[in-house]
Amino acid sequence: MGADYNMALFRCKSVPSFRLGTQVLTPIGLGILVAMQIPFNGLYVEPEAAMCVVWFSTESAKGGFVSREFKLSEIKKFKNEESIHDLPSEVSNS
Q1: DSSP structure class, residue 39
Q2: Average pLDDT, the chain
C-alpha cells in the first residue's frame, strides 16, 4: 500500500466508531444516527471534518426539524447501545 493510503488509514482510526441506527447524544438531545459522511477530495481523506445526520422523534422535534446535521465531534455514543437493529421485528417492520 502507498504512504498516502497508510496515512489516511491512520487518520481514520481516530474517528469514533458509530454504527448507523445507533442512538446518539447530541447537544439538543437523543436521536438516531442515520448518515455519516467523511469528506475527501480525491487525494486526501478528512475525518476531522466528518458530518453526521441525526433523526429525532417527530413528537419531540423542536424548531421545526426532524433531522439535523452535526459535526462528528459534537455527538457521543448513548450509554444504552440499543439500536434500530435490536428492535423486535414487529416493531422494526411497522
Answers
A1: -
A2: 78
Alpha helices in the chain (DSSP H): 3-12, 89-92
Give the cell for residue 78: 448513548
Whole-prediction pTM value? Answer: 0.67
For cell 442512538, name the residue: 23
The neighbour count for residue 23, using CB atoms within 10 Å, is 17
- Domain limits, the chain: 3-79
Cell numbers representing residue 87 in the block = 428492535
Query: What is the structure's pLDDT at 60?
Result: 64
Is a pLDDT exceeding 80 seen at residue 16?
no
Tell me how crowded residue 50 is: count the other CB atoms within 10 A of its CB. 19
pLDDT 10s digits, 57-67: 877 666 667 88
Asked if CATH classification 2.40.10.170 holds for the domain at 3-79, the reply, yes or no, is: yes
